[in-house]
Amino acid sequence: MEAVPRMPMIWLDLKEAGEFAFNAAVKKSAVSVPRDFEGCSTLRKYLGQLHFLQSRIPMGQGQDAAVPVTWTEIFSGKAVTHEDIKYEQACVLYNLGALHSMLGAMDKRVSEECAAGAFTYLRDHFPHSYSVDMSHQILSLNINLMLGQAQECLLEKSMLDNRKSFLVARISAQVVDYYKEACRALENSDTASLLGKIQKDWKKLVQMKIYYFAAVAHLHMGKQAEEQQKFGERVIYFQSALDKLNEAIKLAKGQPETVQEALRFTMDVIGGKYNSAKKDNDFIYHEAVPALDTLQSVKGAPLVKALPVNPTDPVVTGPDIFAKLVPMAAHEASSLYSEEKAKLLRDVMAKIEAKNEVLDQFMDSMQLDPETVDNLDMYNHIPPVLMEKCAALSVRPDTVRNLVQSMQVLSGVFTDVEASLKEIRDLLQEDEAQERKLQELLGRVPPAPGSPPGLAEVSKECSKYLELHEKASFTNTELHRAMNLHLGNLRLLGGPLEQVRAALPSPALSEDDKQVLQNLKRILAKVQEMRDQRLSLEQQLREMIQKDDITTSLVTTDRSEMKKLFEEQLKKYDQLKVYLEQNLAAQENVLKALTDANVKYAAVRKALAEVEHKWNTTVQTLVASYEAYEDLMKKSQEGKDFYTDLEGKAAKLLERARAACQASEAQRQQLLERELKKQPPPRPTAPKPPLQKK
């Protein structure tokens, strides 16, 4: 796999700058940077100087020196203006992340961690209301994309370095985890509406990569099993890798040739591995092949992280050009306090994410959707697709009658044709019988006086018509069978709606079953309430941290008192932290209650699933009957046309058969008379002598 062609990566466009009352030369050099690492350095320097400027001059929103700042929003192309220098900082920081993503998508695959760091800092330290492209959802999506791509780069290097199979498998599994997080964001309706057309392309590529790197993970788990001489496990891992790769290939339609090359290369590797492993196990090792779900799942190894951003790091910002304007002590203290807030947020988020991961895995294993856990409401209504068919038949009340009449007419013509052909066949058979009788009478085959004109042709045409009739008879039988199959359904659809509703299956739940169902729904609602409360508390914490600016206090506080001030200021977050701790602690009890409720729900779930299957089958059958009507009418008309034509031909052939048979009979009579005339008269016999008396 070390020679596998590289997969393409997603990169982000840079925002375009508009109005900002800053030195024109400085602004130009900061927003029109070259697309290389020098450009990244320029953006970092400009960002740092903006922070230095902000710490000394009141240019924030609502402050005295605030000026309009305009940037173009990426997805809509609209100009967005805020009178806030932090908006300028946020846009520059976004461009820093976007430029790193662009460089990482090229051959220089070393920038994704930097991009993730820029977007993480932007998400955690700036308001999300500036513009759509810097909302919390979009930034979280960007972070997961960049981390996934950074882990993907690490995977490439690990395979080139021939690292141990198990480690490569874990690295690949973590790529899958990052991309799954990104995919969840892409599937979110709010995110999809923000991204617009690009959402489909990104989602398609990410979904394909999820299956592709899952295949790579199981390929290397199979290689590890091979190294451990676990030949049965090797077969199932390679089989799973092949299955997942086939899914990736299905999702790769429309992707560039580089993707197709990588998939073909990987298919050659995995396909060869699987075929060889299966053959060896079948003919040499004969080990039992375990089910995949009985083996330990591959846990991802996150070996990349969002590189932290320090906007005021003198190594990247260079000299502070505003150093003489404001005491740096206040700014330095503010930066330290910001780091304390960031640390607090990281600690809380680590706990939240750990609990969320457990919750997501648990809910995925349960396969319980609160919206459709019972589906009882759907049985109270006729589905729209069926209502549409009922409405269509209500304005065509003669549907069934027309179909029956059409089939009756077809049956009549069919019978007439069959009778004519039978009579012709009987005439021909009778003629043959008379010929045989003549032969027996004469004791020899009579000399042929010449066949009656048309008799052979009649026989030939009769055989042809009988063959056509026999073939059409099968079609006619099938048509009648289809009509009988759909006729009852058509009558039902054309009748009262109450009868249609009564014909649809519905669940018959006991009171105990209903109680089990209600209890499960109540606990599922509790799970959602816990999720919503957790998200709300997290958002409150983030907003509180973003708005927490103690610069004014820092200016009047002695350096020796800074630590004490920090501790006092951070106490404002204690209540929120308590609420979050309570929310996280409640999860274990909620999941235990859900487990118990799900066990009781198992029988009800099975019964509901069976009824739903019957309900769907019934609906599909009724719809199929409606859609079959036009086809039945068309085929019925075609049958009538065919048999009407055949009836005319059979009638004419019958007349010819009668005439030919009469002519044949006349010939036989003439031949018999001639044969009788040729025979000599009988000789007279001598009289017997009289008997002598004794």
Automatic annotation (TrEMBL):
CDD domains noted in UniProt: V_HD-PTP_like
Name of a matching Pfam family: BRO1
InterPro entries: ALIX_V_dom, BRO1_dom, BRO1_sf
Database matches in PROSITE patterns: BRO1
Any GO CC annotation of this UniProt entry: endosome
Coiled coil residues, start to end: 417-444, 520-547
Domain BRO1: 27-359
GO biological process: early endosome to late endosome transport; endocytic recycling; protein transport to vacuole involved in ubiquitin-dependent protein catabolic process via the multivesicular body sorting pathway
Skewed-composition ranges (Pro residues): 679-694
Key words of the record: Coiled coil, Cytoplasm, Endosome
Region (Disordered): 666-694
Subcellular location: Cytoplasm; Endosome
Gene3D superfamilies found in the cross-reference section: alix/aip1 in complex with the ypdl late domain (1.20.120.560), alix/aip1 like domains (1.25.40.280)
Protein name: PTN23 phosphatase
Species this chain originates from: Climacteris rufus
